[in-house]
Specification:
A hairpin with a 3-residue loop joins strand 1 and strand 2. Helix content is about 30%, strand content about 30%. Strands 5-4-3-2-1-9 form a six-stranded antiparallel beta sheet, with helices on both faces. Helix 1 packs across helix 3 and helix 4 packs across helix 5. It has about 220 residues and is of the alpha+beta class. The chain is globular, with a radius of gyration of 16 Å.
Length: about 220
């Protein structure tokens, strides 16, 4: 969940053009106009929208078009936006991305409510983190969640993020500031030491077996 736009952000140091990542169940590919209707349908669910910072509610096609235009004009070098889909059926599931921050990039994501509690975001986020750490020199990734979003808390905990602080962040959908946990993941924490006592070892036993990245 992105906090918001950042001026003078540090570059991602990562190719943000055509990225295509395939996991055991999922495909992560560039978010485009073809996803408009499914994104609008998913974000028209207030239960989904309230967990995000920059998504208004109700969410409309005009909101999608405005966001896409901003990304096209200013965001390509500083932001990666990927649609999450079922690679077998092509069904759209949600969105995941990476955005430049003042000090470190920030990962954000959401799923349509129909696909909650299936391990999908853990799989998608791990695939994107693999991609980031393999193809860039980034050593730290930031993230965050609203305190009443326990699902996001569990996803970030599984991936190895640790809490570095708390803040109040404005939610467009709720129309108010909300208590927020600020999280951080280091390259070292993500990959671990290889020891069975290391959390990274246990994560490796509970994730997709392999990824294919096409450019």
């Amino acid at each position: 969940m992105f906090k918001g736009l950042v001026k003078d952000a540090v570059p991602l140091g990562l190719e943000t053009g055509h990225v295509d990542i395939v996991t055991d169940r999922l495909r992560l590919s560039p978010l485009g106009p073809e996803h408009r209707s499914t994104v609008v349908a998913a974000l028209s669910d207030g239960v989904v929208a309230r967990n995000l910072t920059r998504v208004p509610y109700p969410y409309t096609g005009e909101d999608f078009d405005r966001s896409a235009a901003e990304f096209s004009e200013t965001g390509r070098e500083g932001e990666l936006r990927l649609a999450i889909s079922d690679w077998k059926t092509g069904a759209f599931l949600g969105v995941i991305g990476l955005r430049s921050g003042e000090q470190h990039p920030e990962i954000g994501y959401w799923l349509a409510r129909l696909y909650w509690d299936k391990g999908i975001m853990r799989e998608a986020a791990a695939a994107l983190l693999d991609h980031i750490f393999a193809l860039s020199e980034q050593t730290v990734i930031r993230a965050g969640y609203f305190v009443d979003n326990q699902r996001s808390e569990k996803v970030l905990g599984f991936l190895g993020f640790r809490e570095i602080g708390s803040s109040r962040v404005y939610s467009l959908a709720r129309g108010e500031d909300v208590d927020h946990r600020d999280m951080e993941l280091t390259r070292e924490a993500y990959f671990g030491t290889g020891s069975k006592s290391d959390g990274a070892w246990h994560r490796a036993q509970n994730r997709a077996d392999s990824y294919t990245m096409n450019y």
